[in-house]
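Standup notes, protein team

Yesterday: finished cleaning the Dyadobacter frigoris set.
Today: Ribulose-phosphate 3-epimerase structure.
Blockers: none.

Input for Ribulose-phosphate 3-epimerase:
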Amino acid sequence: MAFIAPSILAADFANLQRDVEMLNESEADYIHVDIMDGMFVPNISFGFPVCEAINRYATKLLDVHLMIEQPDRYLEKFRDAGAAILTVHYEACPHLHRTVQLIRELGVLPSVALNPHTPVEMLSEILPDLSQVLIMSVNPGFGGQKFIENTYRKIYKLNCMREELGLDFKIEVDGGVNNDNARFLVENGADVLVAGSFVFNSTNPLETIAELRKN
């Protein structure tokens, strides 16, 4: 059974409290919070005030995904804004080990994301320090993109590395996740499925989350 992390980026921001409370009542495990700075990715989402507002009403853990340059500058602020899991991008962190250790020192679970072009082998030296690895199945920056098929192979390879090393970090997938590919993602080793527009644009988000969770 998969963990589900609906992406609040796809919510109705004119009714943010309502949508957070809907997720509270759902079978979702986390609320995925996408932070974009317009520099690392070609889009700007929101920052600390919105994250704090989400946390004020959320009863689910906040899974905060930092698609930003120099994330070390803001780790403590996002911890204070409610992050239980903090994901930084491998591509944005020249001193990744130091960044991961800082996240742990802040009392938050460290997670590292890989863009579609980045091989999973690039994390081989730091996997024992991670609670989660996020595989991007679209190019980061915008919701509603088409799923990249090579993602299955990357997840499978990462799962093999996890088993060979005897580790227990979670494998999360973000981008284009729906009922057509969820089962194959889980079969290849994914533990956590991030879904944004697929959940919030559905006629019944509660049922959609419940169906995804069955995979």
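Follow-up from PR in the comments: DSSP finds eight helices and eight strands in the chain.
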